[in-house]
Amino acid sequence: MRSEPIRIALRRLPHGEGLPLPAYATTGAAGMDVVAAEDVTLPPGGRAAVATGFAIAIPEGFEVQVRPRSGLALKHGITCLNTPGTIDADYRGEIKVILANLGTEPFDVRRGERIAQLVPAAVTAAAIVEVETLDETDRGSGGFGSTGR
Is residue 140 part of a domain? Predict the structure, then answer.
C-alpha cells in the first residue's frame, strides 16, 4: 500500500504548454513518467540536458530522484547520467533530464516522448562528527570487490 502522497507544486513553463504532467503509468508504479519539451538528436556517445517544460516546488524533507526508463535503455542504449539525479527541495528552476546515448545509432528525442521517471523520496539529514578513530567491523577498510571473496 502506498503512503499518503506528498504535495509537489508544478509550474508549467511556456514551452511546456500542451504536454502531459508527470504521472504514474500504473497504480503500482514507483516513478512518474516525464516527457521531453523539445526535440533533440543524441549522437552515439552524445549527451544533452533535455528540457521538460516545468519547474517544481518539493516539500522540505524530500527530494525527487530522476531515473532512466528501462525500455529506452534496453532498446536504444539511452540512459540518464548522474543516476539517480537529485532535485533538491530548494531548487525552483526548470527540471531537465541529462540523457546519454550509449547505443551505436543516433537517437531522436521527440517533444512529448517519455524520457525519464521521477521518484519522490524522503531525505534524512546527517550531522558529520569528526573523530580520531572509527568502530571496527568485519569488513574493515576492504574496498571495491572485497566482500565477494
Answer: no
Q: pLDDT tens digit string along 89-111? A: 999 999 999 999 999 999 999 99
Long-range contacts formed by 67-73: CB under 8 A, 24+ apart: 67/31, 67/116, 67/117, 67/118, 67/119, 68/116, 68/117, 69/33, 69/114, 69/115, 69/116, 69/117, 72/115
CATH number at residue 78: 2.70.40.10
Residue 23: give the domain boundaries. 9-125
User: Between the CA of residue 79 and those of 31, 38, 45, 133, what are the distances in Å?
Assistant: 15, 17, 11, 40
Assigned domain for 18 exists: yes
